[in-house]
Amino acid sequence: MRVLIVEDEVLVAAEIEFLIAEAGLQTLGVAISSEEALKIVEQERPDLVLLDVHLADGPTGIEIARRAAKLQGVAVLFMTANRRRLPDDFAGAIGSVAKPYTEWGMRGALRFIAECLRDGGATRPAPSSLELSSAWSRKWLVPEVGHSTH
Amino acid sequence: MTARNRAASDLAAAKADAEALVAARTADLQKALDQKTVLLHEVDHRVKNNLQLISSLILLQSRRIADPEIRDTMTSMLNRVSALATVHRNLFQADDLSAFDVPAFMRDIASDLLDASGRDDLSVEHDHEPAAIPAQQASAVALIVNELLIEALACAPESAPGRLRLAVRRPDGELAIEVDHDGSVEPGQSRESFGASLMSLLTRQLSATIERSGADDGPRVRLTMPVADRPAS
Question: Is residue A84 part of a domain?
Fold first, then answer.
C-alpha cells in the first residue's frame, strides 16, 4: 500500500515515514506544498494520502482532499491542529487525526486504516485517536466503542 | 410646524443618532472580538504544532540511540511530552476553553500507554464521574497521571493477564483519581527516581496528596487535590 505524506514540517514528515514503515506500508513521497501534492496524487495515485491542512502555500489541504476524493482508489486522512477548519463532510476524506497526536495514536490510526482498506471494512471500533467521517464510517461498517462509564 | 411637532421630530432624530452610535460601537466591539478569536485560534494552532514538532524530534533522535538505558530515558521524556500534547489536543476542542475534561483525558492517555506497553493481555476499566477542572491545573495533573499509569503498567505481572482500574471522582471542591491494579509488586518499588521527584514537585504545586494502599486485590494509588468549583475564566 503506497502512502503520500503531505506535510510542510519536514521533521514531522520524517517521523511519519518510520510509522508508515512499521505499519507495513510504503512511503511514496513527501510533498510540502499543494502544487507538489496534487502532481503526485494525480500522476501516482497513492492508496492513501496523509494530509496536513496548513501547507507551505497556505490552508490548501482541504482543496487537495476534494480533488483526491474524486479519484478512484485514493483515500485521504487529515492530520491537523485545526480541527475547526475541516468541513462537516471532511471534504471526502476518511477522517482526521488531531495534532499533536502521540506516537501510539498515529500508529493505531494507521494500522486501523490499513486493515480497513485491505479488507474493505472494519472488524473492530476505530482507535480514539481517529475521528472518522460519517460517510466512511458507514462504508466500512465501523462498530461503536462501548464505554464502562456511569 | 408647531413647537410640539418640532420637539417630537428633534427627539426622534436624537434617538436615531443614539441608535446609530450604539450600532457602530457594537460593530466595533464585535470586530475586535472576532480579531481576538482569530488570534487565539492562531496561537492554539501554533502551540499544537510545536508540541507535534517536539514529539517528532524526540522520536527521531531516540530511534538512533543504541544504548537501551538512554533510549528508555528518551522514551520517558517522550511519554511526558505526549501527556502534555494530549492535554492540549483536548483543550480548545470544547467550546469552554477554561475547563479540562479529566475522564476524556484518562481514556486517551490510558489507551496510549497501554498500546505503548505492548500488553494486550491487560484490560483497563474506566469508572468515571463527569469531572472538569480549571485548565491551569491540567498539565500538572496530566504529568502525575502519566507517572502513575506507567508505574501501574510496570507493576502488572507479566505472567498473567491483568486488570487496571481507573476512577475519577469530583466531590465539591475536590478531584480524586484512583489507579488500582492486580499487580503484586510493592508500590513504589519500580519508581524511576526522576519520575518520583517529578511527582513530589507537582503534588506540591497542586496541593495534592498521594495515598498508597495495598488493597487485598492489588495495590491502589489515590490522588486527591482541591479544585475551584467554578473554573476561573
Answer: yes
Q: Is B107–A9 a contact, with Cβ atoms under 8 angstroms apart?
A: no
Note whether residue A62 is domain-resident.
Answer: yes
Task: Look at residue A6 and give its three-state secondary structure.
Answer: strand
Report chain A residues whose CB lies below 8 A from the CB of B52: 9, 12, 81, 99-101
**What grid cell was written down for B103?**
475522564
- The CATH number that domain B69-226 falls under is 3.30.565.10
Q: CA dihedral in degrees (A105, A108, A112, A118; nearest 10)?
A: 120
Residue B36: its H or E element? helix B3-62
Write the residue in B41, B52, B108 that is nearest to A99 by C-beta: B52
ipTM (interface pTM): 0.89
pLDDT (tens digit, 9 = 90+) per residue, B76-129?
999 999 999 999 998 877 667 789 999 999 999 999 999 888 888 888 999 999
From the list B225, B106, B84, the residue with the least C-alpha distance to B165 is B106
Does any domain span residue A21? yes
User: In total, how many domains does chain A have?
Assistant: 1
The CA distance from B231 to the nearest CA of chain A, in Å, is 23
User: B73-96 in b/e burial notation, b at 16+ Cβ within 10 A?
Assistant: eebbebbbbbbbbbbbbbbbeeee
At B180, the amino acid letter reads D
> Domain with A110 in it: what CATH number?
3.40.50.2300
CB-CB neighbors (< 8 A) of B85 in chain A: 100-102
Q: Percent helix, strand and coil across chain A, each rounded to 5?
A: 40, 20, 40
The pLDDT tens digits for A31-63 are 999 999 999 999 999 999 999 999 999 899 999
Domain that holds residue A72: 2-139
In this complex, which of B85, B111, B125 lies closest to A100 when CB atoms are compared? Answer: B85
More confident residue, B1 or A124: A124
Confidence at residue B102, expressed as pLDDT on a 0 to 100 scale: 96
Nearest C-alpha of chain A: how many angstroms from B9? Answer: 50
